[in-house]
Amino acid sequence: MIHVAIIIGSTRPGRTAPSVARWVHDRAVRRADATFEIVDIADYDLPHLDEAKPPMMGQYNATHTNRWAAKIASFDAFVFVTPEYNHSTSGALKNAIDFLFAEWNDKAAGFVGYGVNGGTRAVEHLRVIGGELKLADVRTQVALSISSDFRDGEARPEIRHEAKLRTMLDEIVSWGEALKHVRPDERLPDIARPDVEAVVVNQWTVGSPERQQAVVDAIAAQWAHRSRPEALISFATFTSTDGDAVLTYAQWTSDTAQKEAIDAHRTTGFRVLEDEVPGIEPSGPVNYELYRSFVPDGAPPRQPGSAIVVVNIEAAGAVQAREWIDEVLSALGSEGEPHPGLIAAHFHISGDGTQILNYAEWVSERAHRDALENGPTLGIGQTDSPHWRNVQNMPGVTPAGLQRYRLSSLAGAPAG
Fold first, then answer.
1. Cα separation of 31 and 401, whole Å?
2. Which contacts qualify for 121-126: CB closer than 8 Å, 24 or more apart?
3. CA distances from 324 to 54, 332, 358, 362 (A)
4. Which residue in 155, 163, 91, 89 sits closest to 120, CA to CA?
5. pLDDT tens, 365-401?
6. Most buried pick, 115, 147, 303, 318, via CB within 10 A?
7. pTM metric for this prediction
């Protein structure tokens, strides 16, 4: 069952939008195929857009932005209630929409407009905006007239609008259910699945969001012109939230099968990316094997906006790598309460034992940033505990950096 927000798109004193939203909600809650909630943008005290970085990067710093993002991320679809001001929607609603990006992606949207001409031109603008945000807008809309559908400043729509509202909600629920299965954050690869025996990771430093997108497009183009090897279980492409890196994570049935498949497909391998996108710096491919995983008791579920944090560590050899990972898990297990926001941590060791990769899932980038403030070395745990001191001071093991990512695409089996 999907959860639908009915968004009040006006903050003007004396506004009539709340009564329109209540009219929609009173009829929507009679349905048994979805849940509905009124969301008033006036309750979030959003200033004019004040985030330094583009919302596509997902690096929200302000408290009001993170609060707004968390709310919008919790919904599967939206009904926008909008007035029409000067042939467009309200500035307040446009501003609230502009604060976010990923939280809107791959969700359904419908519109209830009101004005002299039923708010139709405001809805036209919102449809264009929604397209850029990967919102799937349904065809049917409700257009309420100020002259015939309001009395004494309150919405009193004529009975004829109820059929349109029912049809629009039917479409929203149908599309919203379908889109739940295509949202990237709900299709992350299952890192701990038992049939995976080999993992291959490629990382590229790209230097700019433009080159990052070019690399993603090049990878997608190569997949369009090659058959998927039977031994390949999944292939995930991730983009860093700072626009500086791309990572691919491939799961294979075995190391031998992976090498045979690469040899067979060498003419269409991913090495040519450096030729297609000049200026990028590759790191890899590196063959890994999953060694151990940690899932906190009561770990939160994956949700839209989940962040993947990849931590790279250099080790003197496989023995030191295993000892270090074992100590990390002992430290995590000794803590009374897991850090809020950590979903899971999956520790990999390279085939030659000299590299450790921690693929960690967090509910959001903000949750991981908060963790870094409490544990500046690893981003988790208490740095003054004996276990964590052992982790930080173990000889032959050196941190080599971390990067935060979001899933861009997944070919093959999702989490299951």
1. 50
2. 121/84, 121/87, 121/88, 122/82, 122/83, 122/84, 122/85, 122/87, 122/88, 122/89, 122/90, 123/82, 123/89, 125/88, 125/89, 126/80, 126/82, 126/89, 126/93
3. 38, 12, 12, 22
4. 89
5. 878 887 777 654 444 444 567 777 888 888 988 888 8
6. 115
7. 0.62
